[in-house]
Amino acid sequence: MKLQDARKDLLAGAVFTGFGLAFAVTASTYDIGTALRMGPGFFPLVLGAILVLLGISIAVKGFVAGEGGDLGTVPWRSLVLLIAAILFFGATVRDLGLVPALFVSVLLAALAGRGVRVVPAVVIAASLTALSVLIFVVALQLRLSLVGPWLGG
Amino acid sequence: MPRGPRYDIARPRRSRSVIGLAAATLTLAACGGGGGGGEDAAASYPDGDITFVVPFSAGGPTDTVTRLIAEPMSAELGQPVVVQNVEGAGGTIAAGQVASAEPDGYTVLMHHIGMSTAPSLYSDLPYAPLEDFKTVGLVTEVPMTIVARNDLEPTTLEELVAYVQENQDTVTIANAGIGAASQLCGLLFQQATDTTLTEVAYEGTGPALTDLVGGQVDIMCDQTTNTTGQIQSGEIKGYAVTTPERVESLPDLPTTEEAGLPDLQVGVWHGLYVPTETPDAIVEELTAALQVALTDQNVIDQLAELGATPVPEEDATPEAHTEQLSSQIDLWQPIIEEAGVSAD
Amino acid sequence: MGILDSLALGFETAFTPVNLLFCLIGVTLGTAVGVLPGIGPTATMALLLPITFGFDPATSLIMLAGIYYGAQYGGSTTAILINLPGESSAAVTAIDGHQMAKQGRAGKALATAALGSFFAGSVATLLVALLATPLSRLALDFGPAELASLILLGLIASITLASGSTLKALAMIVLGLLLGTVGQDIGSGTPRFTFGQRELFDGLDFVSLAVGLFGVAEILRNLEGSMVRSVVVKKVQDLWLTREDFRRIRMPVLRGTALGSALGVLPGAGHVLASFISYSTEKRAAKDPQEFGRGAIQGVAGPESANNAAAQTSFIPLLTLGLPANAVMALLIGALLIQGIVPGPNVINEEPGLFWGLIVSFWIGNLFLVLLNLPLIGLWVKMLAIPYRWLFPAIIGFAAIGTFSINLNAFDVYAIAFFAVLGYGLIKLGCEPAPLLLGFVLGPLLEEYVRRALTISQGDATVFVTRPLSLTLLVLAVVAFVVAVLPTVRRKREVVFVEEDDGSRPPQPAQAGTGDGAARR
């Protein structure tokens, strides 16, 4: 059962090792230079290697100690909805304009809540969109078009 | 929390009311979509906010020049001019955005000498300076100064040249980053003095100047906008200005020509651009407004404080500036290539 | 001109009705934008720059400066209430401040932040008035080698930001350093890790990182459990500090003020380092270091004071030498230029009214801020009563707009999503986000300074130890490292499991009844 228990540290170690490798490998395609005349690749390459070592140490230590603890629940539905909300805003705010992009994003976000039904979510989205326009466009005078070119705005 | 009344005080003087401004934003949005409508649009131009996109941070020299001319241009055009800073990748982000903006005259790019060097620095530029833009006109040319930490031995440019030639291996020359005016001027300086110095790159002029004042680096070449205050107070040594004429605010500095380095001629020019499909009638409107702004006494005075002068009227035209831009592109290309500088 | 005459002139300038009014406007606006996630003081000042054209130079600067230090007050509010630091320095406040809020002590945390900030701001203002010139000279002695050593010291100090596993904290710092390298290399212009996207040339945006790693990840954690809302199910206790609280924050505030005042003068990272080093110092100095990360009031008092003192002293290089210590100061230079004043050492002699008026206005502004913020505490705490199903979509919406508005760059918004997933995942795996954030902020600077020091010395690595200041800082860094690692080693020898156990704890383990407690043995 050791492996089962240490899952968390093994995973953490794997994540760090993965990032370290990705950075180090990419960095090695840049000019490395030498320690005294560093090129753009030197610093990330060294750090990537250090991160790989740290990642392995974390995993090994976790495995030896076998003390990982439980991961707990992951709110997958909420996670997907929230990320979708953020990405949607970024992708469409320019072309749809602030109001529609924000409305959809906040609606998606609101639906990420537990047991939130569609109608209350629409109310939340509409009110927050109005509030945001008041704060950011009217009060702070940000130059964002309210309705974008896709909607003929 | 922000509330109405405070903004009544803090609002731009031009705008009529908060509601009015919101309405103006809506109008802008409306124009954005329906733009490019050719003659009809040109006839009614301008009837909404005009955005000047500045590719560098607020408070920098380019931003300052833009804001200086934005006010009289706005008065002349009869519409608010909004300055928007879109930073990134040596100004190429902003230029790319404007190149693909609606060609309706409501989105105008202010750019500097970097407009001509970007094609040499970036291999996959999403726009071509000459093909994707129409020039509105040249705005100003800011002279550059050759400066050094104030405990560097040489006192004249001649001595400095001898000094750097003697001490090539140890002399350090600061610049504000890849493609910055200070780097370009530094390249010219090395070319003119036939030296290869150790270039020390900074992220912007501020930190570079800080290290120069602190005596960490030896020399630098930067715009009068950045160096005048420090030279006047003796925090750094000034050797020469890189323009044909001396600068009013620094009367003691000889020109490079007087001081024996005539090859070193460079100024940071600023120009205005619109997307290439913009109707000529709209470009004419903008050019006319620019020319009026350049005769504004306040603009002349303020630019003088920065060590700069507005360009004469015949240079503030699309034709003259297009020609200048094209010759500048040709000038920098071999210099940048030879120095092996690349931004990607 | 003697100091008294100068101050008299300053009071004369600052106390005109117009300047008082615009000082108030500035700090109020600053508080507002500090509270809103995303949109920070730099963006606001840039927005308001045009309207200052018509002002007197002193009025213009007084208002713009007010926005800056006002935002420092406001930034800690969101950090405490919803774990969303708007600025790097507020990230430290979030660690213990948000825990306090969860325990129903939001009022106390906010009051501590406001009082600490006021004290620090006032003392630092006095320092600016009395010692601006010598301090700026001292700051100039910090060349690239010294700054590199200082940042190394800061990074090592940040290990103590985590209350869990040291190994994981180290890994988070390194990951942060690596994420900080994304973008165009300053020296060579090579774009690194940008996948050919020009929008990434200037690197990942700090605001995106903070919003994703802290704000959104926190929302996800809150949506995990069966509880309807995270932020304070517990009843809000009294808002004001007790005598005991005052006793506990006294020394942290003093030390924070000293640290912040000193580090704020330095270019670049001084401001950020101040709050991180202050936190680390307080954790070392505390009798109950385990309390840190679980709502220690000292963990709010120290960094908040440091941060505000630094905000004030960071004006020193600008005022005395015309050199900007950070982006905000660069913007003020622009404001001066537009007014026809060439910033530089001469300003103090040529425009004494402006110089001293601005300094006096700092103090007035800080007074306004504390008067404004203390009564607002009640209001902010009530905000926590907003149902969570309303609060979190609002946070998402505001954060998205605010982040996008800075550069109108969609990538900054995508980066929020990336950091949210990364942050949430890592938190689930027992890694705490604060060290990553510090690594991210300091990484590019560390690389820049190290490489610059080596370039200037023509590749001679001994610069780091032959320059006395740099050597001193390096020695301090080694000491800090030993101090940070020793207890871990010792503890491990005694109780093998403790450390691992700590490591398995999620970073916000304090709230009772959320199930997190079960992981602890």
How many helices of chain A in DSSP terms? 6
> What's the N-to-C terminus distance of chain A?
61 Å
- Intertermini distance of chain C: 67 Å
What number of structural domains do the residues of chain C give? 1
Describe what is shown at a glance.
Chain A is 69% helix and 0% strand.
Helix-strand blueprint:
The complex is a heterotrimer of chains A (153), B (344) and C (521).
Chain A: H1 2-5, H2 7-27, H3 42-65, H4 76-96, H5 98-111, H6 118-139
Helix pairs in contact in A: 2-3, 4-5, 5-6
Chain B: H1 4-10, H2 18-34, H3 39-44, E1 50-54, H4 61-77, E2 81-85, H5 92-99, E3 107-112, H6 114-121, E4 133-149, H7 157-166, E5 172-175, H8 181-193, E6 198-201, H9 205-213, E7 219-223, H10 224-232, E8 236-241, E9 267-275, H11 280-294, H12 297-305, E10 309-310, H13 318-339
Chain C: H1 3-14, H2 17-35, H3 41-48, H4 57-82, H5 88-102, H6 106-140, H7 144-157, H8 166-180, E1 183-184, E2 191-192, H9 206-224, H10 243-264, H11 270-285, H12 298-313, H13 315-321, H14 327-338, H15 347-350, H16 352-383, H17 388-407, H18 410-428, H19 433-456, H20 463-466, H21 468-494, H22 496-504
Helix pairs in contact in C: 1-16, 2-4, 2-16, 3-4, 4-5, 4-6, 4-12, 4-14, 4-16, 5-6, 5-11, 5-12, 5-19, 6-10, 6-12, 6-13, 6-16, 7-19, 7-21, 8-19, 9-17, 9-18, 9-19, 10-11, 10-12, 11-12, 17-18, 21-22
Keywords:
heterotrimer; B: 344 residues; alpha/beta; D-Maltodextrin-Binding Protein, domain 2; 13 helices; 10 strands; globular; C: 521 residues; mainly alpha; 22 helices; 1% strand; Bug_dom1 (chain B)
Structural commentary:
Chain B: InterPro entries: BUG (IPR005064), Bug_dom1 (IPR042100). Chain B: Keywords: Receptor, Signal. Chain B: This is Tripartite-type tricarboxylate transporter, receptor component TctC. Chain B: Belongs to the UPF0065 (bug) family. The complex is a heterotrimer of chains A (153), B (344) and C (521). Chain A is 69% helix and 0% strand. With 153 residues, chain A is mainly alpha-helical. Chain A folds into 2 domains: 64 residues; 76 residues, no CATH class. Chain A is flat and about 55 Å long. By secondary structure, chain B is an alpha/beta fold. Chain B is 44% helix and 18% strand. Chain B contains 13 helices and 10 strands. In chain B, strands 1, 2, 3, 4, 5, 6, 7, 8, 9 and 10 form a 10-stranded mixed beta sheet that branches. In chain B, α4 packs across α11 and α6 packs across α13. Chain B is globular. In chain B, 59% of the residues are buried. Chain C has 22 helices and 2 strands. In chain C, α4 crosses α5, α4 packs parallel to α16 and α6 runs parallel beside α10. Chain C has one domain. The longest helix of chain C has 35 residues. Chain C is mostly helical. Chains in contact: A-B, A-C, B-C. At the B-C interface, α1, α4, β2, α5 and β6 of B face α2, α3, α14 and α19 of C.
